Amino acid sequence: MSEQEKTQQQADEETKAETEEKSEEEEQTETQKSETEKESSEEKKPKQESKEESKKEKKSSKKKNKRKRKRRKRNRLRGFPSMIYKEIKILNESDYFKENYSDDDFSIIIIATDMRRAAFVTSKNGQIKVESVMNKPEEIKSAVKKADGKIETDLETLLGVITGKVNPLKAILKRKLKLKGLFKVIKFVKYFKVVSHIKKQK
Length: 202
Prior knowledge:
single chain; alpha+beta; Nonspecific Lipid-transfer Protein, Chain A; 2 domains; 16% strand
């Protein structure tokens, strides 16, 4: 074999080795790339999961807030019960009322026959609570059973009795006023006098 052939053979072997090295390097880089891609995809997954979880949490919180709003709307007093509460809510802020009427423990239903809602009033531990009852036979019947007293009349007569402009006995005789649990009713009507007394002191 001539020197030229030998050198050619060496060159061929070197190029072969270089190509093999290159291919090995390429393989290594590819494996490294695939590993990094896997790692990045694995990192992305928990991020995506966390995003989904946060979205779910936001949705659930929105639903809870909607439910709360609905409850508030339901519990919010409207119409006639709201009017009664506005008249006597000052008693809940009064120390005079707490000192003198904390022993009172009774409930009374006030039915204004010409109004959509009735007012269920509870007096306990010097605090007044007013609830709304729909003016429907079934609901009124169950509320009357729970209550210790009842006032049933039209709005004009009721306001007249409360302010003292209408004589309750005359209203009863004219069948404009129906009462149940007279002593509890008298106690409740007195509250309006207490309200005027507190307002005068202020």
